[in-house]
C-alpha cells in the first residue's frame, strides 16, 4: 500500500513479528524492502472462482505466483505464510472435499516448500466436525508443516471452532479485535474474522499460555472502542 512505510515507522516491532498480505510478485518485492516485515502472506484458493475474484488469476497461475513469491521471500530472509482459502467449504457449487484440501497442502509443501499453511474458512461455513477432521488428518501426515486456523465465525460459534482446532493439534491462530473485517462474499452479514478477545477468553479458561500481555491487549481493546464504538 502507498502508506506502508508510514505505518511501519509507527509500529513498535521490538516484541512482535509482522506479516503482510501480498497478491503478486510486485507486492512481494515491495514488502521485502522493509526490514520490519518478517512474513509474506499469500491467499491461495482451492476454489477457481474465488481465486479469480480475489487475485485475478486461475489456480494454476496462482501456483506459479506462489513459487515466485517463495523465491523472493527466501532471498530476503522472509518466510511465506500461505492462506488456503475456501479450506472448509465452497459456496460456488464447485467440487469440495477434505481430500482436495489435503492434496493441495501436500503439493504446496512437497513442490514449493511452503512450511506454514493456514486453513482459511473465508466465508464462515466451517463447523467443528470439518475443522477437527482436517486438522487431525493434516497435522500427523505433514509433520514439517505448521498448520494454522484462519477462521471466520458467527458471534455464537467462535469458541467451539477454536476448541475443535486446538484439540485437534492446531497451535497457530489468526484473530482480529472485535472480529473486524471478513469476506464480503459471506452469506451472512454477521460473519466476520475470529474475534481475538474470544480466542483469548477460551485460551485463558483452558489455562493455555499464549504469551500475550493481557494488560496491553485490554488497552488496545479500549482504544479500538473509542475509534469503532
Task: Describe the secondary structure blueprint for this structure.
Layout: H1 4-9, E1 18-21, H2 25-31, E2 37-45, H3 48-55, H4 59-75, E3 79-85, H5 98-112, E4 116-120, H6 128-141, E5 146-150, E6 152-153, H7 158-167, E7 172-173, E8 192-193, H8 196-205, H9 214-227
Parallel strand pairs: 1-2, 2-3, 3-4, 4-5, 5-7
Antiparallel strand pairs: 6-8
Helix pairs in contact: 5-6, 6-7
Question: Could you characterize the architecture of this molecule?
Answer:
- By secondary structure, the protein is of the alpha/beta class.
- It has a single domain, classed as Aldolase class I (TIM Barrel).
- It contains 9 helices and 8 strands.
- The protein has helices at residues 4-9, 25-31, 48-55, 59-75, 98-112, 128-141, 158-167, 196-205, 214-227; strands at residues 18-21, 37-45, 79-85, 116-120, 146-150, 152-153, 172-173, 192-193.
- The strands form 2 sheets. Strands 1-2-3-4-5-7 form a 6-stranded parallel sheet.
- Helix 2 (25-31) links the parallel strand 1 (18-21) and strand 2.
- It is globular.
CATH level 3 topology = TIM Barrel
Spatial strand sequence of the major β-sheet: 1-2-3-4-5-7
Shape descriptor reads globular
Taking pLDDT < 50 over at least 5 consecutive residues as the criterion, the unreliable ranges are none
What is the tally of beta strands?
A: 8
Based on secondary structure, the structural category is alpha/beta
**H and E string:** HEHEHHEHEHEEHEEHH
Mean pLDDT: 90
Amino acid at each position: 500500500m502507498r502508506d506502508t512505510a508510514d505505518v511501519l515507522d509507527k509500529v513498535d516491532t521490538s516484541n512482535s513479528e509482522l506479516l503482510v498480505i501480498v497478491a503478486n510478485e510486485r507486492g512481494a518485492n515491495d514488502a521485502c524492502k522493509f526490514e520490519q516485515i518478517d512474513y509474506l502472506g499469500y491467499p491461495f484458493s482451492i476454489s477457481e472462482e474465488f481465486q479469480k475474484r480475489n487475485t485475478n488469476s486461475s489456480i494454476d497461475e496462482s501456483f506459479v505466483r506462489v513459487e515466485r513469491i517463495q523465491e523472493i521471500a527466501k532471498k530476503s530472509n522472509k518466510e511465506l505464510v500461505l492462506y488456503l482459502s475456501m479450506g472448509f467449504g465452497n459456496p460456488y457449487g464447485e467440487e469440495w472435499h477434505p481430500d482436495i484440501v489435503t492434496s493441495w497442502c501436500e503439493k504446496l509443501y512437497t513442490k514449493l516448500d511452503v512450511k506454514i499453511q493456514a486453513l482459511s474458512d473465508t466465508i464462515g461455513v466451517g463447523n467443528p466436525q470439518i475443522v477437527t477432521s482436517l486438522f487431525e488428518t493434516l497435522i500427523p501426515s505433514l509433520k514439517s508443516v505448521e498448520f494454522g486456523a484462519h477462521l471466520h465465525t458467527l458471534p455464537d460459534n467462535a469458541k467451539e471452532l477454536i476448541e475443535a482446532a486446538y484439540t485437534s493439534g492446531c497451535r497457530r491462530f489468526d484473530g482480529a479485535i472485535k472480529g473486524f473485517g471478513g469476506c464480503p462474499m459471506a452469506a451472512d452479514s454477521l460473519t466476520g474474522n475470529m474475534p481475538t478477545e474470544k480466542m483469548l477468553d477460551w485460551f485463558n479458561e483452558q489455562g493455555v499460555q499464549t504469551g500475550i500481555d493481557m494488560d496491553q491487549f485490554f488497552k488496545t481493546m479500549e482504544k479500538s472502542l473509542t475509534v469503532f464504538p
